[in-house]
Amino acid sequence: MQRITRAGFLKLLLGASSAPGLILSSGGSSDSLATQAGDGQEAGLPYGRSTRNLKTFGTAGKEELLHPGQELTLFSRDGQGCLTHMWFGGDWPGYGDTRIRFYVDGEERPSIDMQLFAGHGIGWDDPSAPWGSQRLGKTGQPSGLYNTYRLPFGKGVRVTGQLAKTVTRPQPFWWIFRGVENFPVQLGQVQLPDTARLRLQVREDVTLEPFQMHAAGESAAAGALYQVMLAVQSKNFSYLEGMVRAYIDGARDPLMLSSGTEDYFLGTYYFNRGMYHLPLAGLTHKAQDAQGNCSFSAYRFHEEDPIFFQNGFRLLWRNGEKKDGKVYGDAPPQQSRVTSYVWIYEW
Predict the structure, then answer these.
(1) Degrees (nearest 5) of the Cα angle 323, 328, 332?
(2) How far apart are CA 241 and CA 175, in angstroms?
(3) Which of 74, 221, 332, 335 has the most crowded Cβ, counting Cβ within 10 A?
């Protein structure tokens, strides 16, 4: 085991892909990280872990009925492991609002409670397909949703499905879950502590006045931002001028993550080339309807662009932007409806 300084860590992080794996510790000093090239390292497996300890598990459900008002267990497993793949099928009105819940390590209240579409970066029931990347995608209509989020657990996991409240008849559902025992979770080249758990913070259908801040996510622990989904609707697109701000470790001043909403999601000029679905970010919806409602949704991953914190974190988005008396946009921003999904690893 070799200790390296923060400067050495950054050098390795920005260096060649052949650099040693980096391990974050959930205990000890926060001023150093460790590289590991332990005994028994095997080709193609990072962090010195042996393939002898890896074992794949999983299940699939075929045309099982979801009943209105009932939560059905789709998958359950005791012990330690990490979910690495999931896929969902089915076809009925309101499909995208179907809820999938993950109860990790004996939780009574799920740490992940997502709608199918929003949990895959899609807002406003956008029907676009097929599209996909390494981490998520949608191959059909309205289903064929998949993701490869890394969802670790230490004592066990239970996954359930439930129809949206608007669905009044039983519906046939298909699903796949897979995972691996003793599987290391990493962001970029950084291996997360064994105690890391993925949490989802949801803010649904929030009404914001012009220039009002939206508190999208927060944590009082140590951890890392993993993914952000934002869906907004208003009477013009000037809300896209809003900047994304992060407050790390109790800082009074924000770390500015963008100069506007679209560039946080790697777009430009109000997404002037339309939809895209890339490994780091994607625009999953943008439209203006007959009533003049201007809506968009997008996702952003922070695996190769990590945002770590040691003692607390807050993520804010602003409904429009003004600076030194200047209001940005072709017209002043209006009242907006906002839904956000913020995925955070905590340890």
Answers:
(1) 115
(2) 39
(3) 74
342 close to 223: Cβ distance less than 8 angstroms: no
Per residue of the chain (347 residues), what is the pLDDT tens digit?
455 565 554 555 454 444 456 667 665 444 445 544 444 444 445 545 678 899 999 999 999 999 999 999 999 999 999 999 999 999 999 999 999 999 999 999 999 999 999 999 999 999 999 999 999 999 999 999 999 999 999 999 999 999 999 999 999 999 999 999 999 999 989 999 999 999 999 999 999 999 999 999 999 999 999 999 999 999 999 999 999 999 999 999 999 999 999 999 999 999 999 999 999 999 999 999 999 999 999 999 999 999 999 999 999 999 999 999 999 999 999 999 999 999 999 99
CA distances from 177 to 12, 54, 285, 329, 335 (A): 34, 17, 27, 44, 40
